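G.,

No rush on this.
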Amino acid sequence: MKRILVTGATGQIGSELIPALRKRYGSENVIAAGHKTQPDKELSEGGPFLSLDVRNFAAVEKIVKEHRIDTIYHMAALLSAFAEKDPLLAWDVNINGLRNILETGRKFQCSVFFPSSIGAFGPSTPADDTPQDTIQRPTTIYGITKLTGELLCDYYFHRFGIDARGLRFPGLISYKTMPSGGTTDYAVEIFYAAVRGKRYECFLKQGTRLDMMYMPDAVRAAIQLMEADPAKLIHRNAFNVTAMSLAPEDLYREIKKHIPEFTMTYKIDPMRQAIADSWPHSMDDSAARKEWGWKPEYDLAAMTQEMIERLSERFEQ
């Protein structure tokens, strides 16, 4: 039976990945580790939860050794908009933290999952049907750390044989966690505003088209990749994955089918708009589909309906 460590446990992905892993592998076999933020009841009571600063190599090593970890999902990171406010901290967490995970993985022969992002591309990357293998010259510290992380994972695989795998996630949409400093946060905030009967003020301009994915698909993709037959993986690391390409007005129109009175205006955040403008409009994820059978289950309509239903249930309680 696998023994799994998930860092960044209280973050947007970690908080939904952990319950899925515990259901699959058993609660006691999945160790959740978070920094500072207190876990919710599902995480704290659903299985082991530990405090961890991934920048502390000794602490990472201690947990992996004591809990006999063989697989690490390394989700701890500073996201795009927050990272731009403190680039040195972003480098420290995103790169030094990953280095500690990979070094520990090398020492104890752990498999490692590393989430990259559409932020690892840049304005010189082809924006439409962005290829799996293409030019990558990101212009944000977040993107630079994600690209560096992709290269580090490749290095540890080729140099030390560490089974490091990863995905380039698009913007992720979830009803369980509030946004935490990402450029695509509008796609979550808009649902909260709609369900609460409030007007939403979008910080990205009309026509800003970006790839998106509903969180259940993101969680399933991560687990599916880590369980894939390594003999079939040509790329192993930094697979493009996506489900839908959206502009703010697309999401607005879909929400209005369920909440006709909902209204949205625009007040552009120059920093986040500049970040979004440097990212692809849509990614080609054919490599993931071919090498390990990736296929999303949620489109815009299905995601919107479930987001509204889930958030409505939460606010009625």
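When you get to it, here's the other one too:
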Amino acid sequence: MSIGLSNLSKEFLLEAQRRMIRIRLFDERASKMVKRGQIPGTVHTSIGQEAQVVGACMALGDSDYMTGNHRSHGHPIGKGSPLAPLMAELVGKATGICKGKGGSLHLADFSVGSLGESGIVGSSIPIATGAALSSKVLNNGKVSLAFFGDGAANQGNLYESMNMAGIWDLPVIFLCENNLYALSTPAHTVTSGVIADRAAGFNIPGVRVENGQDFMNVFTAVKEAVDRARRGEGPSLIEVVTYRFNEHSEGLRLGVDYRDAKEKEEWLAKDPIVIFRNYLLAEGVASEAELDAIHAAVEAEVEDAFEFSQSSPFPDPSTAFDDLYTEPFEVYA
């Protein structure tokens, strides 16, 4: 399947650029907040991976499901979440998207189909598979997408989920964000073969997107898988080759430079936001002034989100046990 400009509106393409810039500027601000002590612990940024995140998320429908991982500020943003509640969640405020109880590693926004994420490697994959099963049982036409990194590519629950999805023809896409490193471990030293090729063992399609820095490449591959799933033709495995520009987590000091300087320089030259901006200009979709205006608007949006996070209250201690169970139980003295 080939998706060209004629199939996509100007509004859609500019929204893709807007969401990529949102992720970039949100994560850049989060990085500064960690270094200034404004966020307890650390955060994992998606800087450099914006095309892979947004290309996949915008291939989904507004009501489709998505699950993330430990590097997942960008996923709800890519799905359309507003920034202020996400930023407030990073600092544990009551106005956060999870009422301040989740933090950076556990963002969820059911209003856009973001079912959640976790720092446990590969743990959200079965959740996405379960959501796909519910879609099939309810026949509601919704598709589910599970993001996971190359470090999760060897987790058993991935293959249990793929096997189940393959047997039952579930409408789910398993998307591997292969940024070449699991923390500091090069993927090629712990993973045999091509991850996308593993789909054959479950009799489902497997696609490897070599240039995951290009929005159109990712969008096209994922859209084909989404359409296939929505037609009732079952799951797909997609491996997207991308790169994180920052360290595994902000402030991490390993005492060794495990990434080759030339490699990093080459990838930094493949900035997904710059690539897509140049594409929009070359194709006559937008002018420099229009694209500059989008960037300026997002800068203001991120600043407003930061101010919102700082002025919001912390949760009241009395709410500590709220939302633990669908049917709260009475606590006896």
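Residues 169 and 233 are 6 Å apart (CA to CA). Residues 10-35 form the longest helix (26 residues).

Enjoy the weekend,
O.
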